[in-house]
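Record format v2
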Amino acid sequence: MSGGSTPIRLLLADDQALVRGALAALLSLEEDLTVVAEVGRGDEVVPEARRSAPDVALLDVEMPGLDGIAATAALRAALPTCRVLVVTTFGRPGYLRRAMEAGASGFVVKDTPARQLADAVRRVHAGLRVVDPTLAAETLAAGVSPLTERETEVLRTARGGGSAADLARALHLSEGTVRNHLSAAIGKTGARNRADAIRVAEQNGWLLGE
Amino acid sequence: MSGGSTPIRLLLADDQALVRGALAALLSLEEDLTVVAEVGRGDEVVPEARRSAPDVALLDVEMPGLDGIAATAALRAALPTCRVLVVTTFGRPGYLRRAMEAGASGFVVKDTPARQLADAVRRVHAGLRVVDPTLAAETLAAGVSPLTERETEVLRTARGGGSAADLARALHLSEGTVRNHLSAAIGKTGARNRADAIRVAEQNGWLLGE
DNA sequence: CTCCGACCGTGACATTTGTCAGGGGGCCGT
DNA sequence: ACGGCCCCCTGACAAATGTCACGGTCGGAG
């Protein structure tokens, strides 16, 4: 599979240094792949990519500074020729959708066999799309987030824990409004609690964006 | 650093196949280390260890079947000569304490530089203890869990989300008693919510074993 | 033995939460 | 211009939640 041509240049972004290094070791075993950059924060992706000009970027979703989805969008805008393969811990249905919308070429969860990663990289580099079929089905089933923008924002803020009055202060809203938004979110998620609604929304990846 | 003697035999346990394989690749780069077994579940650690007789086991904490702490205890009981190095995502203060009590020789979080992992393995194999000094300080500061056994159980059950009545049914308690335990837990954790108390207790690693 | 603390329960209370029915205002597509 | 959707607010209500004071049991430490 490894032609004699120049190897594929890779950028790795993951907040956990250990798995970042381990992935680098894993991918460096392949003759046709070479890791040219590693970063631990989402907001370092674009600057580092400018410097090292990778062919493919492997981005984690959970990262400080800038999440992997936003980093994907930024990277696609800055270096359109660089393909993005999102590698994440959680197979949240919404993550896949958002990643694809942001311009990612592939989406792989971290419990896929290690063997398949290099192939995924090659496919992405060749211009193909790589998606976990199981996850794709879930994504179709889960559909788009039913939550309105405000509801999402309230729910995201409520994640930190705090009374409705606290949320109202933080969001410059009336307390009753906050409770209304929460009630709507609870209804739409099928939950029976505020906490439950947060769980559901988080599992589906509906709490990302800015 | 690599003597000519027989290499150190390693067992890897992590639920994410990708990082498991990546860690294997990383550690296999060292001449004096060899990965002899990989498992993805906590309850497969002891059977696989019996078969492959590793010198050191690298265990993740978050695993299906049996968490890494319990797996540590089981492994120490079954094969006392095999050392355990716990490698985990979260630096929960309570995790370190519990791991050490269970008989682990080392504790490493996943955002330590990849370079240090092999050394940690060697130190553990040599009979030394390996602990992140920052985390050790936090553990001392956080102290033991202030929660009583029942309070912990109630809080752990409440994690799944559900009304006080639900918890009462699940635990065969009165609803008032459940609310009392929760109230006590809220007070001890310094939280102002049930959900908040769960967050705090979880962050400190007070909601583990049975 | 006695005391203390963990545990279980009761009942009552104030607060918070979730729900519902309203009433505005703004924006967009028809 | 109209309906429809989202947003914001109000007020009121039932339910759930958190708190408190109180009694009782049981086991272990002094």
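The interface with chain A takes residues 15-26, 29, 40, 87, 89, 108-115, 117, 161-163, 191-196, 199 of chain B (CB under 8 Å).
Residues 175-189 of chain B form the longest helix (15 residues).
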